[in-house]
Design a protein that fits this description.
The structure holds 2 protein chains of 2 kinds. By secondary structure, chain A is mostly helical. Chain A has helices at residues 29-50, 60-83, 90-102, 106-117, 121-152. The longest helix of chain A is centred in the C-terminal third of the chain and has 32 residues, at 121-152. Mean pLDDT of chain A is 86; it is low at 1-5. Chain B has helices at 2-18, 23-37, 41-52, 56-83. Classes of the chains: A mainly alpha, B mainly alpha. Chains A and B meet through helix 1, helix 2, helix 3, helix 4 and helix 5 of A and helix 1, helix 2, helix 3 and helix 4 of B.
């Protein structure tokens, strides 16, 4: 049984919960280090790519990191836990850490508001739409590709 | 968490825009803290999973609701930085 089936869908819609972990337990030391390390890497990469965007034009670099991170998360969640079920630090390192650090929700919302404030409402609406459409499409693509890969890899 | 991060980043952005906050404030509190602790990837994957389970109401509520509340929170942060 793959670990992906251990939770009912309504308990774990994103498939990011770890069935090995006791509910209500605290983050263990290893997972904490994993999140910190992955998060730092993801955040540094995002900072390097997104610094210098103008607040009055659509920040494409933020769209790109959010898209790439969403694809990677979908891909990773459907493949690595099946291939390496014993790698228990994977979810904290990769999902919460790398993808969590690489992508950002706050920059996206604050950036949209600033565009509106600076009288670029059309750009704000477009930024919002592009971010949501590409992000959701990216996640769906990553998940699909991951499942395909998991089947083909047998 | 995405909502509180949006609120804080709205505030930090406002401080930098309206009250001459420093670049390192942006780096540490903005890009680092808020950018790091909020996540778009989990939000996107969760939305898609809900759609895949045909929970269209929940998916819409989550996807659109999170975006709307996040935008509002960031707006509140900006307003507080400007007017408080």
């Amino acid at each position: 049984m793959s670990s992906a089936e251990a939770f009912r869908p309504e308990e774990d819609p994103a498939g990011t919960l770890d069935p090995e972990q006791e509910p209500g337990s605290h983050l263990g030391a290893r997972a904490l280090v994993a999140v910190g390390l992955g998060g730092a890497l993801g955040t540094w990469l995002r900072a390097a790519l997104t610094t210098g965007e103008s607040p009055t034009s659509l920040p494409w670099s933020v769209v790109v990191v959010n898209l790439v991170g969403s694809v990677l998360l979908g891909l990773g969640l459907e493949t690595v836990p099946r291939w390496r079920p014993s790698w228990t630090s994977f979810r904290p390192f990769f999902a919460a850490g790398i993808c969590g650090g690489l992508t950002t929700f706050s920059t996206f919302t604050a950036g949209t508001d600033v565009l509106v404030y600076r009288h670029h409402a059309a750009t704000a609406v477009f930024y919002l739409a592009v971010s949501l459409v590409l992000g959701l499409a990216g996640a769906a693509t990553g998940l699909r590709l991951g499942r395909l890969g998991a089947r083909v890899g047998r | 968490m995405n909502v509180s991060g949006s609120l804080i980043l709205g505030f930090v952005t406002g401080v930098v825009m309206f009250r001459a906050g420093s670049a390192s404030l942006t780096a540490v509190a903005g890009t680092g803290f808020c950018g790091g602790y909020t996540t778009f990837s989990s939000y996107a994957v969760e939305s898609v999973r809900l759609l895949e389970q045909r929970r269209y109401g929940a998916a819409s509520a989550y996807a659109l609701g999170s975006a709307a509340v996040g935008l509002a929170a960031a707006g509140v942060g900006l307003v507080v930085a400007r007017w408080a």
